[in-house]
Specification:
Layout: H1 11-19, H2 38-43, E1 46-50, H3 56-68, E2 72-76, H4 78-82, E3 92-95, H5 100-111, E4 120-123, E5 149-151, E6 154-155, H6 166-170, E7 175-176, H7 179-192, E8 197-200, H8 209-226, E9 231-235, H9 244-252, E10 255-263, H10 267-272, H11 283-292, E11 296-303, H12 312-323, E12 328-332, H13 340-347, H14 367-381, H15 384-397, H16 414-433, H17 438-450, H18 454-475, H19 487-490
Parallel strand pairs: 1-2, 2-3, 3-4, 5-8, 8-9, 9-10, 10-11, 11-12
Antiparallel strand pairs: 6-7
Helix pairs in contact: 8-9, 12-14, 15-18, 16-18, 17-18
The structure holds iron/sulfur cluster.
Keywords: Iron, Iron-sulfur, Metal-binding, S-adenosyl-L-methionine
Pfam families: B12-binding, DUF4070, Radical_SAM
Domain Radical SAM core: 143-376
């Protein structure tokens, strides 16, 4: 893990880099891996930036640095598309997905070398069909700097959860790439350096079940003919558990992790946030079904919903215990622009635009109490003993249900073995020797190592270590209670 600097490559920027005219000389920088230097700014004619809301201060800072170097600046991507007003100082804004606005913008850049006197805005009316998307510019990237690689098959989601901006930004009718495009992208990834694991970043991988059913046999064939070089993960709605045929194919394609937005175990809360799709079967049964197909579930949980009561934290912790889900992203509710939630809270006068708060929502429960509830859920969920108990369940009830993948040259290459041994060495040292929960770690690691389950020790040791560290940072007030909170990022 010596080289790993970031979780996943910036998929959107890689596509833009591939879409720009071939004769343009492009320098691709992911600031999660390394910051752009003065020399980079001086070298460029134009600085194109993209990012999510959480990166807003950094995006604006890049704009300032580029302007200091006298360069034209452009911002595109998810954050500016949702909130163009966040970026008043950029020279050019690109709103929406790749499409007619991108072509118009390229033409504009070709004809202008000076910064415009006022902001120029390009807004996509006609999106480029996903079937015409280029293969992301993986060759511009050091893939070994990332924990895992990512790929996109579809965009959009047919559901309408109250807090989510995906349907309004990307549509309710999922659009898809062809299976051949997906395979080409996987080939390009392998060529750039086998990342080991690939995450489908689709808003909802099973948003169009028929299309996924068509894709999966191609993925299975690709895995078989390449010696199963990759583990797959995806985001999907929990009702995937009602599609045994898809699940069987996902198992065969070696999907090992699925992120489900469970959000809350409280049925009345799910109804209130229009997440009825999670009510189509009992949540715990759905999680067990996914486990039966070898998939570890990662769950999103939201605290601060209007339906929350002082008992909510207990209910969430009990749900975590019963579901045995090891990893959960527990966040405070945050209202994103272009969502039904934003509009409702605006009408009710319950939006608080104060960046010193963890959330812009005026909760029905007292703010301090909601933040405390979040802290308690995180701290208890990632108590080392409790976390390792849930991983022990996964070792016994989930991982053995995966297919046995071959020891192919793609999997047991010298590079992979070296990478695995380096990771194992670091975990044994950092967790097995120096951590204050080393006893708990060895209870899992000793028998697993005796059985040769090295991958398991690496996976559990690494993920648990990060979660426990994250919790310690939360306890010290060094982490935000919401992905979207600007509080810490600014200070
Ligand atoms: S299912 Fe997921 S992607 Fe779809 S609207 Fe709900 S939260 Fe958004």
């Amino acid at each position: 893990m010596r080289n790993v600097r970031a979780f996943m490559p910036p998929q959107g920027l890689l596509i833009v880099a591939a879409y720009l005219p071939q004769q343009w000389d492009i320098r691709f920088i992911d600031e999660n891996v390394r910051s752009a230097t003065k020399a980079d700014y001086q070298w460029a004619d134009i600085v194109i930036v993209s990012g999510m809301h959480i990166q807003r201060p950094q995006i604006n800072e890049i704009n300032e640095l580029a302007h200091q170097a006298g360069k034209i600046t452009i911002v595109g991507g998810p954050s500016v598309s949702g909130c163009p007003e966040y970026y008043p100082d950029f020279d050019i804004v690109h709103i929406g997905e790749l499409g007619d606005a991108t072509d118009a913008m390229i033409e504009y850049i070709d004809c202008h070398t000076e910064r415009p006197s006022q902001q120029v805005r390009f807004e996509t009316q006609e999106r480029l069909p996903l079937t015409e998307f280029p293969t992301p510019a993986y060759h511009k990237l050091a893939l070994d700097r990332y924990f895992l690689a990512n790929i996109q098959f579809s965009s959009g989601c047919p559901y309408r959860c109250e807090f989510c901006d995906i349907p309004e930004l990307y549509g309710q009718n999922p659009r898809m790439k062809t299976p051949q495009q997906v395979l080409q992208e996987l080939d390009a990834m392998l060529e750039a350096g086998n990342p080991g694991a690939v995450y489908f970043v689709d808003d909802n991988f099973v948003g169009n079940r028929r299309a996924v059913a068509e894709l999966l046999p191609h993925l299975i064939d690709w895995q078989k003919s390449n010696g199963y070089p990759l583990q797959f993960a995806c985001e999907a709605t929990l009702n995937l558990a009602q599609s045994p045929k898809l699940l069987e194919m996902m198992r065969e394609a070696y999907f090992c992790t699925v992120f489900c937005g469970i959000e809350t175990p409280e049925p009345q809360a799910l109804k209130a946030i229009s997440k009825d799709q999670n009510l189509s079967l009992p949540i715990l049964d759905a999680v067990k079904t996914l486990n039966k197909y070898g998939m570890e579930v990662v769950s999103g949980i939201i605290i601060g919903l209007d339906t929350d009561t002082p008992e909510t934290a207990d209910n969430i912790l009990e749900f975590i215990r019963l579901s045995n889900i090891p990893m959960l992203t527990i966040n405070l509710l945050y209202a994103l622009p272009r969502t039904p939630l934003w509009r409702r809270l605006e009408t009710e006068g319950r939006l608080i635009l104060d960046e010193s708060r963890e959330s812009n929502v005026d909760f029905l429960m007292p703010y301090e109490e909601v933040v405390k509830m979040w802290q308690r859920c995180i701290t208890e969920a990632y108590d080392p003993d409790f976390l390792y108990q849930r991983f022990a369940y996964q070792c016994e009830h989930t991982y053995p249900n995966r297919i046995k993948v071959p020891n192919s040259p793609a999997r047991v290459s010298k590079k992979n073995i070296q990478k695995g041994l380096t990771m194992l060495g670091k975990i044994l040292l950092r967790v097995g020797v120096f951590s204050n929960y080393r006893q708990t770690f060895w209870q899992m690691a000793k028998p697993a190592l005796k059985k040769g389950k090295i991958e398991q020790v690496i996976h559990v040791g690494l993920v648990a270590h990060h979660l426990i560290k994250f919790t310690q940072e939360c306890a010290r007030g060094e982490e935000s209670a919401s992905f979207y909170s600007q509080k810490l990022r600014r200070s």
